Amino acid sequence: MAASAWTGIHAARRLRRTHEELLDLRAALGSMGTEIAFAATPCGPLCRRAGAGRTRAVERFFTYLAEQSEKPRGWGENPAERACVAAGLALPGPARRCLERVFDRFGLNDREGELRQLQLADAELARLLEELETQMEGRCRSYQVLGLTAGAAMLVLVL
Questions:
Q1: Rounded mean pLDDT of 75-89?
Q2: What SS3 state is found at 92?
Q3: Considering only CA atoms, which of 38, 36, 40 is closest in space to residue 50?
Q4: Which distant-in-sequence residues (6+ apart) come within 8 Å of 51 by Cβ?
Q5: Per residue in 118-129, pLDDT tens?
Q6: Cα–Cα distance measured from residue 34 to residue 58, given in angstroms and rounded to the nearest whole number
Q7: In this predicted model, what pLDDT tens digit does every residue of 57-69 receive, in sequence order?
Q8: Phi-psi map region of 122: left, alpha, beta (phi>0 left; psi -120 to 50 alpha)
Q9: What's the CA gap between 10 and 129, in Å, rounded?
Q10: Domains in the chain: boundaries
Q11: What are phi and psi of 106, to 5 degrees?
């Protein structure tokens, strides 16, 4: 029973973590946009500053990107996907694809192009965040109840 209850509670916690990471990513992208608009900061320091003071996974995401940008061969293929995996971000597929659109070609556009990409990503993350917020309390409660119910059912079957 405890294992099933823990599974439900863990699913609810993961949903809350996703919410927190989406908020942090939006703040980091906004910070990057401001810095790009007013300074010509190189990519590595820009990513490090964007990740500073964020949740652990978001900070690791930007640290990974900074480290990759400072390598002699640059980003390599699919840097955002690799950074998401390395950081352990708990993001839904659309959010990951949004980050891939921004960071897989980051630095290849002019200043206005980069700002536009960041704005588009922010708008997409805002939409996903709003969608998640409308469903979050009900889904968290459902996960917890399902976990407890499954545990109780298992207990009844065992007894």
A1: 86
A2: coil
A3: 36
A4: 28, 58, 59, 60, 61, 62, 63, 66
A5: 999 999 999 998
A6: 18
A7: 999 999 999 998 8
A8: alpha
A9: 20
A10: 21-137
A11: -65, 135
